[in-house]
Amino acid sequence: MRALVIGAGIAGLAAAGALARGGWEVEILEARTQRPEHQGMADLFGAGYDALEAIGLLPAASARSSTPFRIELQHPDGRPGPGYPTARFYGAFGGRHLSLPAADLEALLEDALPPTVRLRRGCAPERLEADDGGTAAWLPDGGCVRADVLVGADGLGSAVRRTFFGPDAECVRDLGLRVADVSVHAPGLVQELRGRGLVADGIGRTVQLCGLPDGRAMGAFIEHSAAAARPGRPDTDAGTFLDAFTGLAPATDSLLGLLQKSPALHQPAVPDSTAPDPTALGPASAGEPEAVAAAVVELPRWSTGRVVLIGDAACAVSFVSSQEAGLALAGGAFLGAALARTRAPEQVPGALAEFERRWRPTVRGPQRLVKRYAHKAVPRTRMNLLDRRFALRVLSVPGIARASARQLLGPIRGPVN
Ligand SMILES: Cc1cc2nc3c(=O)[nH]c(=O)nc-3n(C[C@H](O)[C@H](O)[C@H](O)COP(=O)(O)OP(=O)(O)OC[C@H]3O[C@@H](n4cnc5c(N)ncnc54)[C@H](O)[C@@H]3O)c2cc1C
Q1: Cα 174–202–155 angle (5° rounding)?
Q2: Residue percentage of the chain with pLDDT more than 70
Q3: CATH code assigned to 2-409
Q4: What does pTM read for this prediction?
Q5: From ligand 1's centre to the CA of 312, what distance in Å?
Q6: How far is the CA of 77 from the centre of ligand 1 (A)?
Q7: Cβ of 325 less than 6 Å from ligand 1
Q8: What pLDDT does residue 251 have?
Q9: Is the four-CA dihedral 241, 244, 245, 250 of positive or negative sign?
Q10: Number of C-alpha atoms within 13 angstroms, CB side, residue 266?
Q11: CB of 233 closer than 6 angstroms to any ligand 1 atom
Q12: What is the pLDDT of residue 98?
């Protein structure tokens, strides 16, 4: 049996690995020539943590884990504000939690792929087709890849979804937030953080900053924005987006200062008129951060015939949930394991239906919570700002931290295989 996976993000790599380990022939097409430099953190607990353990990557991922020991507000004049020890919050998961850069998780998953998997980077299909006899992807060089199953793991702006499941307007729900994740080598700043994660916020904007043991500082710059955006695509150049965050706190200004030195930063965003064909996504630059929309994807079905969607393409829960990477990992691995049990193409639709029946409840809870709480991710009024400071203080109370973790992150278990 043969699978073609579109997209080498967390979900695609997890599915490809599980399929190949189950004896399938697997090919992955990835639009980007290299993994992006600027990606956020992957928080793994519940189903995501369980999946990592089942794949055997827990020790390697734990070695790269860097959860800040404390989350703390920094005021614009540099004074420390309220905060809480993260162990109290994550204590809700009984120690089964880790947080590592999403790029590092992707690297671990890619390195763990069986050697039989073919991964082609800088290669986005120009045309996709599927019928009862199989699936086909036509490539820019005129080649064609045929497979028994086509797995769409191509993220929020999925071309596979648009081709087989309908337009974005019918399934992508914009949450009115834009985020740009950045990662910069900044050992001085990391030393200043001393293992803490910092939050800096103003009305309409918030930044979360943490340091990694290898000297990188990671920042998530989040803005409230009512503007419509194309999912998964930058709607402004990253430089202009990030400029609006100046002055929130000295630590985040230091990070912005280091970023401004990057020549990639003020590249213009891709104008709409040059948007690629809906079934193809040209290779994106790996070096510049992107400001992207937070969105939830809700589809009545994730599979049709021999085509199936996973990860953000199928059921994005947005970064607001802190579960997106974990659900992409666990969902990809779960789909791969379900398909790998099939022995003939006729069994594929049944396996896909079973995958969906068992996996959908795991995603439903986080999606519901995100739709309910997304508006709280960024303060919009002075009262919201004060509320957030109060929340940071209250989270230092042990029982409240655990209860909040359960309430905010919801029921987080899911089937592993
Ligand atoms: C700015 C930002 C911040 C985030 N912060 C967090 C966080 O703090 N915690 C958390 O858990 N999650 C976070 N996430 C989410 C998390 O990174 C993603 O949800 C998770 O990586 C989803 O994985 P995926 O494999 O489904 O999709 P993606 O990671 O989007 O991977 C899709 C892949 O498909 C490729 N692709 C797209 N189109 C094509 C095509 N036509 N042909 C070939 N390849 C294609 C893309 O280049 C990409 O490599 C964040 C996401 C973003 C964008």
Answers
A1: 25
A2: 88
A3: 3.50.50.60
A4: 0.90
A5: 7
A6: 35
A7: yes
A8: 96
A9: positive
A10: 5
A11: no
A12: 92
Helices 10-21 and 324-340: angle between axes, nearest 10 degrees: 20
Secondary structure of residue 101 in the 3-state scheme: strand
Question: CB-based burial of residue 139 (10 Å sphere; 0-12 exposed, 13-18 middle, 19+ buried)?
Answer: middle
Name the residue type at position 182: V
- Can you read off the two tokens belonging to residue 232? 């998964």
32 Cβ inside 6 Å of ligand 1: yes
With a cut of 50, say whether residue 271 has pLDDT above it.
no
Query: Residue 358 contacts by C-beta under 8 Å, 6 or more apart in sequence?
Result: 334, 338, 415
Among 146-160, 283-297, 320-334, 340-354, the range scoring the smallest mean pLDDT is: 283-297
- Give residue for tokens 């789909």: 335
C-beta 238 within 6 A of ligand 1: no
Question: Which ligand 1 atom minimizes the distance to the CA of 279?
Answer: 41
Which has the minimum average pLDDT: 14-23, 32-41, 205-214, 216-225? 32-41
Q: Where are the domains of the chain?
A: 2-409
Q: Hey, is 182 helix, strand or coil?
A: strand
**What is the residue with the minimal CA distance to atom 20 of ligand 1?**
325
**CA-closest candidate to residue 151, choices 30, 238, 297:** 30
Question: Is the per-residue pLDDT at 285 higher than 90?
Answer: no
How far, CA to CA in Å, does 326 sit from each of 46, 316, 320, 332, 366? 8, 11, 13, 10, 11
Ligand 1: which atom is nearest the Cα of residue 35? 49
81 closest CA partner among 194, 249, 252: 249
Please write the tens of the pLDDT for every residue from 297-319. 999 999 999 999 999 999 998 88
Q: Which atom of ligand 1 is nearest to the CA of 326?
A: 11
Distance in Å, CA 243 to ligand 1 centroid: 24
- The interaxial angle of helices 324-340 and 348-373, nearest 10 deg, is 170
Q: What local confidence, expressed as pLDDT, does residue 121 receive?
A: 95
For residues 24 and 340, the answer to whether their CB atoms sit within 8 Å is: yes
Residue 9 beta carbon below 6 angstroms from any ligand 1 atom: yes
